[in-house]
Amino acid sequence: MLQIECPWCGLRDETEYKYGGQAHVAYPEDPSALSDEEWAEYLFFRDNPKGPFAERWVHTGGCRKWFNAVRDTRTYEFLAVYANNEPRPDISSLTGADTAGATA
Amino acid sequence: MADLSTLQELRRSPLHDMATEIRDGGVTGDRAVQLVEQPFVTMVSVRIDPDSTGSRGIDEALGAPLPRRVGETSQAGGHTALWLGPDEWLVVSESDAESLVEQLRTAAGDTPAQVVDLSANRTVIELTGPGARGVLEKGCPADLHPRSFPDGTAIMTSLARVPVLLWKVDADHFRVLPRASLAQYVAAWLLDAVREFAPASPSAQAGA
Ligand SMILES: [Zn+2]
């Protein structure tokens, strides 16, 4: 079983968590000013990198808190967990030189 | 309107209909386990910023500071505060819920806080005896070994795949707090799980 480290509860089984999609997708400042294409971009389009990916997780079976994590989509390895008001960690520092698959 | 004492006579705990089964479902021997429901325990949810003046007020009202880390509990004067999250606790108390809610709301003062009587949300199943930990380990993903789960630890986890609050009083005494709607399922699972902890009887060995 994959274990995920909750920032507050520590290592727990994957089944205690739910996935929340890509992290750092900000709600548009002025939604009514967006074109349909821009609105669709915000609503539906997400990165799909092969490699480290910053995403949201929620610890539903524990403290019920949301947090962010950088997960390598090739290996499922969690490279970092951090609070959802913190900036994305520097991915190159987490993976060394092997960051070719990462997207900005 | 019926007065409160009448309502208290009429109320039924989530495991009321299983009381006999639960009482008779324990096993004896080296790995004895006994089960009992502790119904109608006062439980009050507290949500507040732990670094606020209001939370210091609550610490004083409870007689012990709200625990700050996962698994921790703090106990004083008939109240035990269980850590549920970085800004959420469950106070399990010997006081009556109404006065405890009042007391904690007053203690929080002007700090934004939520103090709610959640006594009806969960029931308490007490597991006692040297086999208690072994029974729970059959259906709980948490490491219950004393080195990582010392006396006085309480965590949100799962038992038999449903969420429960698990609280270890001491090595031979655990409390399982399922939601009311899942209590019968959890109790039935526990009753089944304890059966293999009974000592082998001569008649069973004879194939009866
Ligand atoms: Zn957690």
Automatic annotation (TrEMBL), chain A:
Under NCBIfam families, the record lists: soxD
Q: What is this protein called?
A: Sarcosine oxidase subunit delta
Classification via InterPro entries: SoxD, SoxD_sf
Q: Which domain of life is it from?
A: Bacteria
From TrEMBL, chain B:
Please, which domain of life does this record's source organism belong to? Bacteria
Entry's Pfam families?
Answer: SoxG (PF04268)
Kindly provide the name given to this protein in its UniProt entry. Answer: Sarcosine oxidase subunit gamma
Q: What is the lineage of its organism?
A: Bacteria, Bacillati, Actinomycetota, Actinomycetes, Propionibacteriales
Note the InterPro entries from the entry. Answer: SoxG (IPR007375), TrmE/GcvT-like (IPR027266)
